[in-house]
Write a structure and sequence with these properties.
binds flavin-adenine dinucleotide; binds iron/sulfur cluster; alpha+beta
Length: 473
C-alpha cells in the first residue's frame, strides 16, 4: 500500500525519537518498537497489511511534517482558559511556582524536589484519576526502564528520578485504548505532543487521558550513553540498576552523580563534573531528532516540571522544582498542597523560570536556525519548525554547532566500532571524542580573545558616557 508509514519516515529522514505512539495506535498492530544498532528505539514493520490510505502513524508522529506546531496545538488546548497567558519561550502558562515535596522521601528520592511523584500520588489519592502511567526501573540489562501503569503509591515512588534512557509508549497507549479508566501520564515534550496528536485521532485516548505531566527536556540519550557512563565508572558487566540522579550530601544540586550496579553486584559512581558534563553538554549519544526539537517547556502538557537551575536553589543539594501550570485543576492541586503543608512552595515569575532554562533555550531555540540550515545544506530532510533555517549565526557559534553535530554523529558510529573488543577500544572512543572536545574548547578560547577588544572598547565607551553624564549634572 502506498501510504506514508512511520518506519519509512525514519529510514528516509532519521528523525524518529522512538516515542512509540505510532506503534501503539497502528490499527493492524503492524509496527513494533525495537532498539536499533545505536541503542535508540525505532518502529519496525512486522507485517505489510496496512489499511488502504491509513497513514495514521504518520499523522500522530511528533516529527512528521504537518501544518500544526506546538503553538497552534496549544492554542486549541489552552487558549480559552480564563486568565491564561503566553510567552514565546514557555508557551501558555496560568501560574508558576518554585518548591519541593515535604511528603515522605519524595524530595530525597526525586530528581529535583520530588513534585512529580507528589503530584501523581495526589491525583490518585484525590480520585481525580484511576491510573498513573510513568517511567519505572525494569531491572533487565537490555531494557533498564519502561513505561508502566500503576494504581498504588509504592511503585510510583519507586519510579522517581529521571531516566536518561530510551523508553517508548506503544504498550501503554494500547493499554489505555483497551482498558477503561482515567489516566495521568508523565512524559517528555515530544512524547506529550505525540499523545496529543494521537488523542485527536482516537476518542478513547481523548476521553481517558485526563492529565499530562511534562518534564522540561534538553535532550534524550541513547542506551549507549548508559553503557559508556558505566564504563567510565568502572563497571563492566551487564547492568541491572541505574540511578542517573544521585544526590551527594552538601554538594550543589547540579553536581549529581550517576550510579550503576551490574548483575554481579559490582557498583560504580560518577559525578557530573568527573565526566558526565562533558558527554552531556557536547551531545554525545543524543538522538538526531533532538537536534530539530524546539519545545523546551512541554508546551502541550497540563503542567511542566523542571530543575530549579537558579543560583539561590542550586546550592541546596536536596533539589528544588520549578513548575508551570496550564490548567485550573492542577493550579488548585498545587495551591492546596501548599496550604495543607504537603508542598513547600511559592509563586515565582515566569521570567525567572525562563532564566533558569536559558542554556536549554539557547540550544533548542537560538541555535536551531543554523542547525536547520546546516542540515538542509547537506541535503537532509528536516521538519518545518517555528524557527526558519538561517545561516546567519556568528563564526564562533557556527563552529560550536558544527563541532557538536559532529560529536553527536561520531559518537553513534564510533561507539559501535569500539565496543567489540571491550575496554581497550572504549579508551579509543574516549580519546577520539576528546580530540573534538579540545578543538571546541580551543575555538571557544580563541573566540573569547577575539571578542575581548570589542568588549573592552564597549566598557571604555560606557565609562566615558558615565563621566560625561556626571559632568552635565
Ligand atoms: C531526558 C530528560 C531530560 C531532562 N532535561 C531537563 C533539563 O534540561 N532541564 C530541567 O530543568 N529539567 C530537565 N528534566 C527534568 C528533570 O530532570 C526532572 O525530571 C523534573 O525536574 C522532575 O523532577 P521531580 O523531582 O519532580 O521528579 P520525581 O519525583 O523524581 O519523578 C520523576 C518522574 O519522571 C518520570 N520520568 C523519569 N524519566 C522519564 C523519561 N525519560 N520519560 C518520561 N518520564 C520520565 C518518572 O516516572 C517519575 O514519575 C529532564 C528529564 C528527562 C527525563
Ligand atoms: S496500518 Fe496505518 S498506522 Fe499501521 S503502519 Fe500502516 S499506515 Fe501506519
Ligand atoms: S511516532 Fe514516535 S516512534 Fe513513531 S516514527 Fe514518530 S517519533 Fe518515531
Ligand atoms: S529534546 Fe525534544 S525530541 Fe529530544 S527527547 Fe527532548 S523533547 Fe523529545
Amino acid at each position: 500500500m502506498n501510504v506514508p508509514n512511520s518506519a519509512e519516515i525514519i529510514k528516509q529522514n532519521n528523525l524518529c525519537i522512538g516515542c512509540g505512539v505510532c506503534a501503539g495506535l497502528c490499527p493492524t498492530q503492524g509496527l513494533v518498537m525495537e532498539f536499533n544498532l545505536y541503542g535508540e528505539y525505532n518502529p519496525v514493520r512486522r507485517n505489510s497489511d496496512c489499511f488502504e490510505n491509513c497513514g495514521l502513524c504518520f499523522q500522530v508522529c511528533p516529527f512528521s511534517d504537518k501544518e500544526e506546531n506546538e503553538d497552534s496545538l496549544a492554542k486549541i488546548i489552552f487558549g480559552n482558559i480564563e486568565g491564561i497567558k503566553h510567552r514565546p519561550e514557555t508557551g501558555y502558562y496560568l501560574d508558576s511556582y518554585v518548591g519541593y515535596s515535604k511528603v515522605c522521601d519524595h524530595r530525597a528520592n526525586g530528581a529535583s524536589g520530588g513534585v512529580a511523584t507528589w503530584l501523581l500520588e495526589t491525583l490518585l489519592a484525590k480520585r481525580i484519576i484511576d491510573y498513573v502511567i510513568c517511567v519505572t526501573p525494569h531491572q533487565e540489562p537490555e531494557k533498564l526502564f519502561r513505561f508502566a501503569v500503576f494504581d498504588t503509591f509504592e511503585p510510583i515512588r519507586r519510579s522517581a528520578r529521571s531516566a536518561y534512557y530510551p523508553v517508548e509508549m506503544s504498550e501503554v497507549v494500547r493499554y489505555i485504548i483497551e482498558n477503561e479508566g482515567r489516566y495521568a501520564i508523565s512524559g517528555l515534550p515530544c512524547f506529550i505532543k505525540g499523545l496529543r496528536l494521537a488523542a485527536r485521532k482516537n476518542k478513547k485516548l481523548r476521553d481517558r487521558i485526563r492529565i499530562t505531566i511534562g518534564l522540561v527536556c534538553g535532550q534524550m540519550k541513547s542506551k549507549h550513553y548508559t553503557s559508556y557512563l558505566a564504563f567510565l565508572a568502572g563497571v563492566r558487566g551487564p547492568l541491572l540498576e541505574v540511578n542517573f540522579r544521585g544526590k551527594p550530601l552538601g554538594v550543589p544540586a547540579n553536581n549529581y552523580f550517576f550510579q550503576c550496579t551490574d548483575q554481579e553486584n559490582n557498583q560504580g559512581k560518577l559525578f557530573c563534573r568527573d565526566g558526565i558534563d562533558k558527554v552531556w553538554n557536547n551531545r554525545w549519544f543524543t538522538p538526531r531528532a533532538c537536534s530539530f526539537c524546539d519545545d523546551v517547556f512541554a508546551e502541550l502538557a497540563d503542567v511542566v516540571l523542571m530543575d530549579a537551575w537558579l543560583p539561590e536553589y542550586i546550592v541546596d543539594w536536596k533539589g528544588t522544582n520549578l513548575i508551570i501550570v496550564r490548567v485550573p485543576l492542577l493550579r488548585q492541586a498545587i495551591e492546596s498542597g501548599i496550604e495543607e503543608g504537603q508542598l513547600e512552595g511559592k509563586r515565582i515569575s515566569i521570567d525567572r523560570i525562563i532564566q533558569s532554562q536559558l542554556g536549554v533555550l539557547n540550544v533548542k531555540r537560538n541555535k536551531l536556525a543554523y542547525r536547520l540550515y546546516l542540515a538542509k545544506q547537506k541535503g537532509a530532510v528536516v521538519p518545518t519548525k517555528r524557527e526558519a533555517p538561517s545561516g546567519e549565526a556568528n563564526f564562533f557559534t557556527r563552529k560550536e554547532i558544527e563541532l557538536k553535530d559532529k560529536m553527536q554523529e561520531l559518537s553513534r558510529e564510533l561507539f559501535l566500532q569500539c565496543t567489540d573488543g571491550g575496554e581497550r577500544n572504549l579508551k579509543t572512543f574516549s580519546d577520539k571524542m576528546d580530540r573534538l572536545v579540545t578543538e571546541l574548547e580551543n575555538w571557544a578560547r580563541f573566540g573569547r580573545i577575539v571578542r575581548l577588544p570589542a568588549r573592552e572598547i564597549r566598557k571604555v565607551a560606557r565609562e566615558i558616557g558615565r563621566v560625561r553624564k556626571i559632568g552635565r549634572i
